[in-house]
Protein 1
Amino acid sequence: MSVMQQATSISSSGSGFLGQNTFFNTRYSSSTKELSIKVKTKNSGICKCVAATPPPPPPPNEKQQIAYKTNVSRNGNMAKLQAGYLFPEIARRRAAHMLKYPDANVIRLGIGDTTEPIPEFITSAMAKRAHELSTLEGYSGYGAEQGEKQLRAKIASTYYGGLGIEENDIFVSDGAKCDISRLQLLFGSNVTMAVQDPSYPAYVDSSVIMGQTGQFQTDVEKYGNIEYMRCTPENGFFPDLSKVSRTDVIFFCSPNNPTGSAATREQLTRLVQFAKKNGSIIVYDSAYGMYMTDDNPRSIFEIPGAKEVSMYMMNLFVFLLYFFLNFSILISKGLL
Amino acid sequence: MSVMQQATSISSSGSGFLGQNTFFNTRYSSSTKELSIKVKTKNSGICKCVAATPPPPPPPNEKQQIAYKTNVSRNGNMAKLQAGYLFPEIARRRAAHMLKYPDANVIRLGIGDTTEPIPEFITSAMAKRAHELSTLEGYSGYGAEQGEKQLRAKIASTYYGGLGIEENDIFVSDGAKCDISRLQLLFGSNVTMAVQDPSYPAYVDSSVIMGQTGQFQTDVEKYGNIEYMRCTPENGFFPDLSKVSRTDVIFFCSPNNPTGSAATREQLTRLVQFAKKNGSIIVYDSAYGMYMTDDNPRSIFEIPGAKEVSMYMMNLFVFLLYFFLNFSILISKGLL
């Protein structure tokens, strides 16, 4: 089957695209059988794709010359994880496919890596800062733990002017994915969590590792003790909150990955009211907020009352004056 | 008291230097009453230091306008931590001191920040790489999870040539401190751990957060369920292993922070034998290995059998060809 020749059904409950039907299910936090997104492809001559056959599973006992083994046990929650993290697995399968079909032009629907060069005025500033580090005046060692004061003030005024977010509310970290795990560590193992279904896998995986969940249940393809909030075309990709059980933490990504659907002002208002009623914390992931061109809120802090129940993660790939390629802004108002 | 005028006694069991006697004890993982390092200071006119008086404690109930509180509990292990992480606390106290004595030239014995500019040939390479990111040929998105293949091969041959460490054993991460917490997450809450006493605080703090320890016991100034290995002048700063109980993990830093003492080949051989006998894993922190000028091993992998029981962390502040200012090498041989 070539995706050049027909619309391809990509379902979070599995398709031939990734080989094994169970894989996409188990790793993409989805148990939705109905979701089917049609991808229309151009019938041009550029794209030449060939469906992958499932790669052979690794040998059960790889020959390792281990003459000795420690008596240290691993975090038992790790064993609950299914088949490794999604994106390295996709990369492995893609590599195997390319080996077999070297001329294939694979459409990557995986991790969402960037492909375009960075504008020159940004990299020039980065280079300038690099050179400054060789001067007595320009050199600096460790920065402030919460981020440079000047940067935090600028973020507050540029992105959140008028929303009641101040410099002190902002924490600049080294990436949103790291922050997800750190937040889980802050919450500990005794909280319950809800996620959109389908959703970015790091919310669920980090929850599993922290011991917040039960085992993976193969029959329903869900982890125990996680509240999966169905987001399908039928409900406009926004969960029916009347059917969602109360949890401590609600991970909510808008625009969502992988559906691309952005919540409206009215929907987010309902979500905030829901969290407030339940005493929950919303961890709002706005990684794709910069791509929005419509009137939907870019930040949940545009919703009245959201500051009382929400933490906010925003991923900035490049920020002009600073030397990092990828960092994250984390905003909270003392919720715990 | 001025450190200009006399040798100053700095003890990990407390001195006036940090104000409160209990502080250095509780946060620097030390219960050693005897340790006293004499610091000889030059009687020059440059340094003008004034002893700090303890800063006032923060008000018990800072006025916060919180009209609403969530029902989400925090990781209970966080509450076991004493008074916040050591280094931000030192920074806060230093800032308070400088406010009171603006002319003071404080000798910083805290986090060990760097102060000297980076050699120009390194920052030029960093700037070159920045500029390349603006070109179609030079741009790259996410790198390989375990680090670039080429870099890992170079690290293996440059630093571990002849020690049986290969490219595949090496994981390049974004920093040794992050790695400590990630390793703790890998171990989980059911392992026991040993640390040098005194030692870098992140080993203990990360263990506390993961729930591996008991409460902090104020009478002995130790956390329950941690094996503190005394390293004092009396034992040459190397623990008497006949008195150390078996633990799953042994954090071992050489040259150690804060004592500066490096373990000899013979001492490390005993440590490896001790770990092997007990089925323990040594997490070997070699952050200061590059400063060694004597014949002591820079890496524990120089010791026969160490690969079977050791993980290894090495902090590289700058590596020529890559764009990170601070990253870490983590080496393991499939110990779990």
Note: Chain A touches chain B through 67 residues (CB under 8 Å).
Protein 2
Amino acid sequence: MSKYWSKLAARLEPYVPGEQLKDKKYIKLNTNENPYPPSPRVIEAIKAAADSRLKLYPDPLAADLKETLAEYYGVKSSQVFTGNGSDEVLAFCFMAFFNSDEEALFPDITYSFYPVYANIFNTKYREVPLNDDFSIPVEKFYNSEGGVIIPNPNAPTARALSHDDIEKIIINNRDKVVIIDEAYVDFGADSVVDLIGKYDNLLVVQTMSKSRCLAGLRIGWAMGQEELIEGLTRIKDCINSYTLDRLALAGAEEAIKEDEYFQATRKKIMTTRERIIPELEKLGFKVIPSKSNFIFISHVKVKAEKIFLRLKEEGVLVRYFNKPRIDNYLRVSIGTDLEMDTMIKKLEQIL
Amino acid sequence: MSKYWSKLAARLEPYVPGEQLKDKKYIKLNTNENPYPPSPRVIEAIKAAADSRLKLYPDPLAADLKETLAEYYGVKSSQVFTGNGSDEVLAFCFMAFFNSDEEALFPDITYSFYPVYANIFNTKYREVPLNDDFSIPVEKFYNSEGGVIIPNPNAPTARALSHDDIEKIIINNRDKVVIIDEAYVDFGADSVVDLIGKYDNLLVVQTMSKSRCLAGLRIGWAMGQEELIEGLTRIKDCINSYTLDRLALAGAEEAIKEDEYFQATRKKIMTTRERIIPELEKLGFKVIPSKSNFIFISHVKVKAEKIFLRLKEEGVLVRYFNKPRIDNYLRVSIGTDLEMDTMIKKLEQIL
């Protein structure tokens, strides 16, 4: 606490990202990064952009990247907003669409940044409890006072909502914005990008940090009809004209154009996921159905925190949340086959 | 206007950056970029960082870059905060240190992003009128209710404050934060980084977009005692854990280490500036004394807006602000010698 802090700075409770330990070499299954490197074409595009043009500001509109994303997803480029990771895009969403006197809704177990955004931007909100199996109680998101934000698949549970259920939530909130955070959608869930033309209250947020193997490049984007995109742009233009540097813009554009690599990589992750789930079940784990690049698991006998600490000792980092309802679960990112086999061997020893 | 926008989004008046025209090849003297490319060593460092590690998140603490900056500027690494351009750092400053019920002070003619930040983050503020010669009325910044922010040199006037005058402002605001925005300090003004150890209410903000030739990389930072840095970190960690991507971190670190290139480049700019000022005066321009990589000029006979439009037709972009007190001035970035000579030839034709 400092006398120099604003009232805002003084009351904040910042988000804590997953550990980035450097004391030894870990198998890193704790921040949902992709275990595969970005496509060589992306690396080449970045290197080609690293030249004297770095003396000039990047395009504040990110027009080329928006055009590329729009073409790929079948929307107009005026229906795309880009930002410094989906975290920045989500932060701007809270500022652009939610209010301090109308209750926005999100699940009680979800991306733990949402309540942090709500707190800093003074959003009124209510956390809707998930069902006991961590599925989303769809009807409880109808007729929100101030809007809705839901990740699909949800994090850290990995459970997905059906396309129909999301459409129901959109239809039953026609005067408020429904934000679907599709950070993990490419690992088996249904995107609702196809509904953007149909509903002007739908905003879909995506990222290159997971399925595009580019967590280190900080690229996120939102897609929705023009009024929503303009709302986000108004916020951005009051904070930072250029949030994506020239190298990130170049790499991101190529990552979208390089579809073959993307398809192959996400399929590898899904294949590994499906292969290891029965192995974990054999070891006594309950595994929540996953459509993501991570799984949410709980052991019938051994406490999650104990397994978390023992795995860390053994050089395997997974994520443990000391929070009500999920404090006996572990979130485990899907790594390479070798990484997952090593983890399973370690688990066999521990259990 | 949209029914989906928050009250905040609806009331905003976004900042408008300098034009980035693409219809033809321009001599770009309108956004204060550096006319010289970044050092080849910086380009190499970026290329070396463009590899499979991009699949991993960047260091959220930017520890290596902070260490490099701290060593260069003679502060501790705990006294450095890094962000996505100084714009993002400045935005976080408004959130971290200013309040809605205590009046912060900045000049009436200054970086036009300040009132935009104040508006979006609900800061109470008062614009202190500059003297008629655009110098800063130092004593009018004493005993502020809510803090002070001043660019040194000021923009778009290019005038610098003396080290002594800044120290007086700091001393006369001991209970409030004094932010000195040193975006342009490397072109001849005195930095007050040396006062950080002495005053815990001083925060100095700098950027790589001007003197380090890296506008395209989006690197800014703040230096101050630990309490102020912690205030900024609290804000950042509520919005975006990782604001600098891996390539920007690598390039920025090398840009600080490569001091020889930096010294040579900034001297070239200052030499060109001093050379062309008498030439402009010969053409009938009044030139405000400049310690920056731009000059603020006004013609005795021809209106600034007319010169601005004619130069644009001739392929030379400068910045014109249609605002009270400065609507007969042009802000002209210092380009290469060739660019400046071309501009002067065009001006001779126009006048």
Note: The CA atoms of residues 18 and 31 of chain A lie 6 Å apart.
